[in-house]
Design goal:
- With 440 residues, the chain is mostly helical.
- Helices cover 82% and strands 0% of the residues.
- It has 18 helices and no strands.
- Helix 2 packs antiparallel against helix 3, helix 2 packs parallel to helix 10 and helix 12 runs antiparallel to helix 15.
- It is globular and about 60 Å long.
- The relative contact order is 0.14.
């Protein structure tokens, strides 16, 4: 590992941030791609009920994956902090303890997803024709949950070490495996292909980790609950809780839309795949910002941490404007990639018209969230996320869905409205945090 490239405390901020961010973005693109391929293949070669099943089932899988990713953020932040503080000897114990915790989480998720697949499908208000297929999708993903959790833990370790290229490599391998599996198995095997792809990526990641020259050692004694993993838990748990409730709100939104019929349900599922791609720039900014800021906080360089946040905002806004234009004015072409059903294409585009502004405002919000994560202010990140989700996005989306003239465009607009509200909250907290620091 090149220590100069992974040292974020010196040199040009943009020159260090972009090379670290781009592989994260690449990994997210590929991860979104092999999720989208499930929908694309089923949409092209399967049935409308199969499309709805994969759409609804993937919402459940997204909940699990995103929560685990945020939970693992505590590992990323703390590894970066130890590197900034020149204390790499603590990293082994951190990883060992985290492995035990994530194994327990995997076991719980396995039982829930296998044992309650059908109730989950019913709770999601999957159309009657798609309930059994949705249950199968959730059940198969639950069977492979250990691989999904392991992948996210390994990715968090590499990124905490300042290495964002390795996760890109093993996601690329997984993407190839998933595409091949989808084309062979189509609707009934979309979940099998996804789980197999995750398993391959985990094996490849472990191989890279073993072969890598690391700045720390892991011993058998490290594999126990210890103070380091508990510290990471305190950072990651609020983020996981916030993400869990946010994703629950999206599942509720999916249930609202499922009541509008099969075409609306499938259209929303297709739109969500486009949304996943549109949100990749802000997401990669948030993940890279957390590591970048945490290293500088550990080195006592707060001024550089602030500059990194504003640099990230600038990059995100510029690219967000380009993405906005595509989503707003060419959304029908984007949804048309996943299905040939005209009604589904139009419903997906209708949702995207309302959502489009989110591609710009989220760049600002996520840069600030990454900055706060790097400062261990994850309780605040949880609070602001819950406020904007529970008080703005979800109530507004529900209200729009029960109107006589309910439209996916109006429902979609709830997302940017909530984000703008969140930005206001975060600006207030940022000013308060700086004033408090200056008074010390």
């Amino acid at each position: 590992m090149n220590s100069s490239k992974s040292d974020f405390t010196q040199g040009s901020i943009l020159g260090k941030l972009l090379p670290f961010m781009l592989p994260i973005l690449g990994a997210l693109v590929l991860q979104a791609a092999y999720g989208a391929v499930d929908l694309l293949v089923v949409g092209r070669f399967g049935t409308t009920s199969g499309l709805s099943a994969v759409s609804t089932g993937s919402q459940v899988l997204n909940l699990v994956t995103f929560v685990i990713t945020q939970f693992a953020m505590g590992i990323t932040v703390l590894i970066a902090r130890y590197i900034g503080e020149k204390k790499p000897q603590y990293i082994g114990a951190l990883i060992g303890g985290a492995t035990i915790i994530f194994a327990i989480v995997s076991a719980v998720l396995f039982v829930v997803m296998i044992g309650f697949a059908q109730p989950i499908a019913v709770l999601m208000q999957a159309p009657q024709e798609a309930v059994e297929l949705t249950s199968s999708y959730v059940r198969i993903c639950g069977g492979g949950i250990f691989f999904i959790v392991a992948y996210n833990l390994l990715a968090a370790i590499f990124r905490g070490l300042g290495d964002s290229k390795s996760p890109l490599l093993f996601v690329a391998v997984a993407c190839v495996v998933n595409i091949a599996g989808d084309l062979i198995l189509v609707a009934g095997g979309a979940a099998i292909a996804t789980v197999t792809a995750q398993a391959v990526s985990v094996v490849f990641a472990l191989f890279l980790l073993v072969k890598r020259e690391l700045p720390f050692k892991i011993t058998r004694q490290d594999f126990k609950i210890n103070t380091h993993c508990i510290r990471a838990l305190k950072v990651g748990l609020p983020l996981a809780m916030q993400e869990f409730l946010t994703q629950i709100s999206f599942l509720a939104l999916c249930a609202f839309i499922n009541r509008l019929g099969l075409a609306a349900s499938s259209g929303y599922g297709v739109a969500c795949k486009v949304v996943n791609f549109a949100m990749l720039i802000p997401s990669s900014l948030m993940q890279s910002m957390a590591s970048f800021v945490s290293q500088n906080v550990g080195a006592g360089n707060e001024k550089r941490a602030k500059k990194a946040m504003f640099t990230g905002m600038g990059v995100g806004i510029v690219i967000g404007c380009i993405v906005f234009a595509f989503v707003m004015f060419k959304g029908d072409l984007l949804t048309g990639i996943f299905t040939t059903d005209a009604a589904v294409v139009q419903n997906g585009y209708d949702y995207l018209k309302g959502f489009a502004l989110e591609t710009i405002v989220t760049a600002v919000l996520f840069s600030m969230v990454g900055y706060f994560n790097g400062h261990d202010k994850t309780v605040w990140v949880m609070v602001q996320g819950l406020v904007q989700t529970l008080l703005v996005r979800l109530p507004l989306a529900y209200y729009m869905s029960i109107q006589p003239d309910a439209s996916l465009t109006k429902i979609g607009f709830a997302a940017p409205e909530a984000t703008i509200f969140g930005i206001v909250l975060n600006v207030i907290f940022y000013l308060w945090m700086n004033r408090k620091r200056n008074n010390l």
